[in-house]
Batch of 2 targets.
Target 1
Amino acid sequence: MTTVEIRASGRIVQLKRADKVLFPADGSAGALTKADLAAHYRRVARRILPQLRGRPLMLERYPDGIDGARLVQKDTPGHFPDWIRRSELPKAGGTVDYPVCDDLATLVYLAGQGCVTPHRWLSKADRPDHPDLLVIDLDPADEDFEPVRESARLLHDLLDGLGLPADLMTTGSRGLHVLVRLDRRAPFDEVRAFAHDVAALLAHRHPALLTTEARKAARRGRLYLDVQRNGYGQTAVTPYAVRPLPGAPVATPLAWDELDDPALTARRWTLATTEERLAAPDPWRDTPRRGRSLGPARRRLEALRTS
């Protein structure tokens, strides 16, 4: 097996077994190796690193390829180099030493460890109890993408009415994520309760299309508005991360008007096609960077719920 040396962030990172196949060839794409995965993360570094910096991570690793064993890793392994940042955070009965990816060298090293998908916390390590992101996952009942488009439009309109600018992204798996940037004043319990109330109001308005039922049997073919990621220690897929599925689909930021694109699906972009996205302007460039307070939005939401 080949070892490749990659210069990144002033370091030399060794990519061992670089020719190891992580994604076997299928009908839509050729085989993809660990070197291909590292090349993707180097290519998207300018856009993915701002989404990762300062955040504890859960690593979804496939050292023997996506057809092999899946390793879900939160605690930083002892063999990771000392220069990779750690964040020790409490859990029930102890602590977890989470990895944090602040630079390109760490990103490349993680790819070399077979980390196909980095999943990030919605808060940063310096204030782990206070998220700066709220996420609602639009989880469809089947492969029909039309309910996902319609739900995204409805949620966007509601959030806009609440004074909350939102970002949109494909998950690279089944649906879409809608994200709201927060000012880190509200703790997780408050953020999750707010997200639940937003989802409940939308489901109440559109009961034939949407549900907040966590049990699949109770959804009866409706799209599930999932807000469960808005909790301490929970994670969501990082924008521009690769998913461990055939063809190596990539979670990709969208502009809202791209919902009208008939070719749009949750797996529209892949490791092999993200370069065309990077050549275009960042679709999130116009979203205000300043996080919003939930106070005014909560008051507007209560007015809608009682009207």
Note: Residues 188-205 form the longest helix (18 residues).
Target 2
Amino acid sequence: MSAPGTGERQGTDLSFMRAALNIAARGLGRVAPNPAVGCVIVHDGHVVGRGWTQPGGRPHAETEALARAGAAARGATAYVTLEPCAHHGVTPPCADALVEAGIARVVIACLDTDSRVSGRGVARLEAAGTSVTIGVCQAEALDLNAGFFLRTASGRPLVTLKTATTLDGFIATRTGESRWITGEGARARGHLMRARHDAIMVGVGTVAADDPDLTCRLPGLAAASPIRIIADGRLRTPLTARLVRTARDHPTWIVTVPGTDKARLKALRECGLEVIEVPADAQGNPAPGAALAALGQRGLTRVLVEGGGRLAASFLAENLVDRISWFRAPLVIGGDGRPAIGAYGIDHLDLAQRFQRISLEEVGGDALETYVAKA
């Protein structure tokens, strides 16, 4: 086993690993509970095979890349964004497949924290005489699959809070008008975010006010629409809502609390919704931590929370927001608008969850600020 090298080889390794990371991202939102992995196979400086984890988590990236490389894999170098698996599941271990194909060297971005792998893939490769290098683009690989690693370690998916507001932080006027605060470019980016998450969550207030579809409506990505989740402690979701009417076409879940109306539960289930009961918080709403644990048990690794303000506040109050994607439009509507984040009782600044901005970009005429939670 070796660390990333120096000089010409290091530059080559970086270049091909970045290519593997780029194709790995194609699996985001489509491979849960598995990680999104990319693999690039290189022989004599030329790419002879590429692969990424397929929808549903199978086949794995290495299997796809080896199939494309064929006989050219013998003596080649494989660049893999995550340690190859070492356990028998639906398919044989990828570490064994790389060895059997005659791969001479494997460059791995980061190790797999899954207890079924966690170093075993590297051990199998080295036992077969395969040269292994670990840590090339490690930070990027850890970030790409942050949701997978968080679910493995803590049992819950990564939470991204996405909101689109005016400069003064409002999502609607005092009368509730909100279409459209941001422009077409920002809305398209929001739909791409949906495609890269396993699920999208809103509160029942948003369902009642906006009657959203919560699908990905970008050309060619309709099939990438995530699972739709409604947080609804009292089962107030109208049976006429679009989310209910289309539940048989797009998976839709309701997270509620025990003891709700049985007839209402039956009606929602008959419409095709899955109902998940979790303990209530002090306000009688689904407790955010319990809700995330239930979603993690169902294999979700990345959840996009789109609102409204009360739902956002409940996650922030429990320090359960890992990332924020905040679109700001260049307009001001005044203090009687509807805030993006509801009240949640912060009396002292040292109690507030803090974030670090990692990017700021212009999207059309709007700004997109991206933040990560500070440890």
Note: The first helix runs from residue 7 to 24.
